[in-house]
Amino acid sequence: MNNAIDYINTNRDRFLDELKAYLAIPSVSSAPEHRHDMQRCAEWTAAQMRDIGLHDVAVSQTAGHPVVYGEWLGAPGAPTILVYGHYDVQPVDPIDLWTSPPFEATVRDGDLYARGAADDKGQVFMHLKAVEAHMKTNGRLPANIKMMIEGEEEVGSDHLDGFIRAEKERLACDVVVISDTPMFARGVPSICYGLRGLAYFQIDLRGTKSDLHSGSFGGAVVNPALALAQVLTQMKDRSGRIRIPGFYDDVRPLTEQEREEYKRLPFDEKQYRKELGAPRLFGETGYTTLERTWARPTFDVNGLLSGFTGEGSKTVIPATAMAKVSMRLVPNQDPDKIAALFEAYVRKVTPKTVELKVTRMHGGKPWMTDLDNRFIQATGRAIEQGFGKRAVFTREGGSIPIVSTFQEQLNAPSVLFGIGLPDENSHAPNEFLNLDNFYGGVLTSAFLYNEIGASTGPAA
Ligand SMILES: [Zn+2]
User: Max alpha carbon distance in the chain (Å)?
Assistant: First the structure.
C-alpha cells in the first residue's frame, strides 16, 4: 500500500498535466458539432485504461455516444467494484463569463478551472490514477475493478439503461462507486448514502366548455381556478404534514445515529435563509432543515395556469385550471403506491362541480444504503486515510436515476463518494476542481480499493 501512496505523491505534477490534456477535449454531448470530439474523448479514456493495465478495454458504440469499459479481475475471492463516471460535459455558454478558456485548464489559487474539471472528468481521472498507482507499484489491485465511463450523462443517459441491461453479466459487481457529486462543504469530505425519489402529476379541472363572461354567468357555475386552489390547500396541513391518507405509511424514520450525524455538519440556518432570500424557513414540524430536505417527503406545486394573466383586466370565468404538482419521496415509499393514494385523494377532495383529470408524469424510486453497510464503512475508513479527517454522512434531496438502475439491474449498492465542492459551478461558467481535493481523492480511491478488498460484513 505504501508504494502506491508514494507513487501518487511523487507523480502529482504529471497527473495534473495529463488531466489538463483530458480536459482539453471539448466533449460536449449535447452539441452535434462535437460528435467527433466525443469519440476522441472516449478513445482517450480507453487509451488511459489500457496504459494503466486494465484488460478488455472497449469503446462500445450505442445509438448515442459510446460507453468506455475496462476491467481487472485478478483478485479471485475479493469483492468486485464497478466504478461509474462520465466523460461528457455541459455546454460552455455564456462563454464571455469564463475568466480563462473552458478547454484550456488553468490553475488559480489551488483550483483547476475548466469545463468538466469537477463534473466529471476530474473525478473519473482520480480513479484512473488510483488504479495506475496500484498497478505500477504492485502489479495488481487489492480488489477486482470494472470501470464504465459513459458519454451521455449530461443529456439524460438515454442509452445507458439499455447498455447495462445488455451487459448485465459483464457488469456484475458487489458495489458501485460513483464519484460525481460535491462534498458537503469545503474541507468536509462526505459520503452520500441516500437520495429522494419523485412522483409527478398534472391536475386538470374543467368547469364549462369555454370561458364565460363573469357578469352574465358569475354566480351560476363554479370557478375552476378557485376549485383548484381549494384542492391544493387540502394537500398539506399547517404543520407541513401531507394529508394524503396512507402517505407516511412506508416512510423510514430517521435513526438517532442519522440525526446525530446531521447535527455535526457545518450548516448555518441563518445564512441559508439569507441566501435564499426567504423571510422565514418553513417545513414539517419536528424536523431540522437538513432532515426535511434529505430524509422527509414533501409535496410541492410546481406550476399553476388558469384564466386571464395578461396586462389589464378581463372579466372572465376560466373554463379550465391546471396545476403541475410533485412529491419528493423517501425510503421506503413506492412511487406507484403513492400515485394511487394521491389520485384517490384528489378525486375525493375535488368538488363535483368540475371535471377532473389526473395525469401521471414521471416517477423515480428513493434510494438509500444502510450506514453500517460494509462498503459505506470501507469508504469512511478510506476517506480518513486519504484526507486525514473523519468523513461525514449525507443524503441528497434530489435524485440520481442511475443509482436505482444499478440496484435493480445489478442488485448492487452504490457508494457516492465525490470530491467536488458545492460552489464548483459545475453547469456554469468557471467550473473548477480544487486540487487538494483531487490529490486527496486519488489517495482516498487508492485506499478505498484496499479497504473494499479487505472488507467483511453486511453487503446489502
Ligand atoms: Zn456529472
Answer: 87
Q: Is the pLDDT of residue 164 over 70?
A: yes
Structure confidence at residue 457 as a pLDDT band (50, 70, 90): low
Active site residue 104: no
Q: Which three cell numbers stand for residue 406?
A: 444499478
Instruction: Specify whether the CB–CB gap between 136 and 5 falls below 8 A.
Output: no
If you measure from the C-alpha of residue 331 to the centroid of ligand 1, how many angstroms do you get, rounded to a whole number? 23
- Condensed to tens digits (0 to 9), the pLDDT of residues 355-374 reads 999 999 988 899 999 998 99
pLDDT at 460: 45
Give the position of cell 454531448.
29
Between CA 56 and CA 72 the distance in angstroms is: 8
111 assigned to active site: no
Identify whether the C-beta of residue 424 lies closer than 8 Å to the C-beta of residue 437: no
Model-level pTM greater than 0.85? yes
- Rounded CA Rg of the chain: 25
Residue 370's region, left for phi above 0, alpha for psi from -120 to 50, else beta, is beta
Sign of the CA dihedral with 92 first, then 94, 100, and 101 last = positive
Q: pLDDT, tens digit, for every residue of 188-230?
A: 999 999 999 999 999 999 999 999 999 999 999 999 999 999 9
CA–centroid distance, 182 to ligand 1, in Å, is 10
Q: Which listed residue (18, 119, 153, 261) is catalytic?
A: 153
The pLDDT of residue 456 is above 90: no
**Are 235 and 355 within 8 A, CB to CB?**
no
CB neighbours (10 Å) of residue 194?
Answer: 23
The secondary structure of residue 291, as a DSSP letter, is H
